[in-house]
């Protein structure tokens, strides 16, 4: 069971943009890592774009399960995990991350923010904390 990516996005008008993300691509071949990361970023944005405000969904994409939660205020989170990772845990993680993010990052920064301008450093910690270590 693995988590590959945890992203916070903003579903604005007219488009969705990434605010902050953390990735674990360590299980992939070194030469594949950047393209896998791009795929995860693109897929996260696409899923948020296609999700309604106030909705939660789990979408299968290739061998991954993408869990998305779009809040009514436009803040969205996506977890990309393998098929075995428990769905309930993913949504608990998304709730926790989005609540904390909205407390620490001003709502005024969401529409214009980017990974370079948003200062929120907890995603890497959550990604490793929620990683299930297999023996």
Task: Give keywords.
alpha+beta, five-stranded antiparallel β-sheet, globular, Beta-Lactamase, about 140 residues, 3 helices
Question: How does this structure look, described?
Answer:
- InterPro entries: Longin-like_dom_sf, Longin_dom.
- The protein has a single domain (3-124), classed as Beta-Lactamase, CATH 3.30.450.
- It has helices spanning 33-49, 87-104, 123-129, and strands spanning 3-11, 16-23, 55-61, 64-70, 75-82.
- By secondary structure, the chain is α+β, with helices and mostly antiparallel strands.
Write a short abstract of this structure.
The protein is α+β, with helices and mostly antiparallel strands and 135 residues long.
The best one-word shape is globular
Mean pLDDT: 94
Low-confidence segments? none
CATH C-level class is: Alpha Beta
Radius of gyration: 14 Å
Terminus-to-terminus distance: 11 Å
Q: How many structurally independent domains?
A: 1
**Share of helix, binned:** 25-40%
Strand content: 25-35%
The profile of the biggest β sheet is: 5 strands, antiparallel
Q: How does the helix and strand content classify structurally?
A: alpha+beta
- Main sheet strand line-up: 2-1-5-4-3
Number of strands: 5
Q: What's the CATH topology label?
A: Beta-Lactamase
CATH H-level superfamily? Longin domain
CATH level-two architecture: 2-Layer Sandwich
Task: List the total number of helices.
Answer: 3
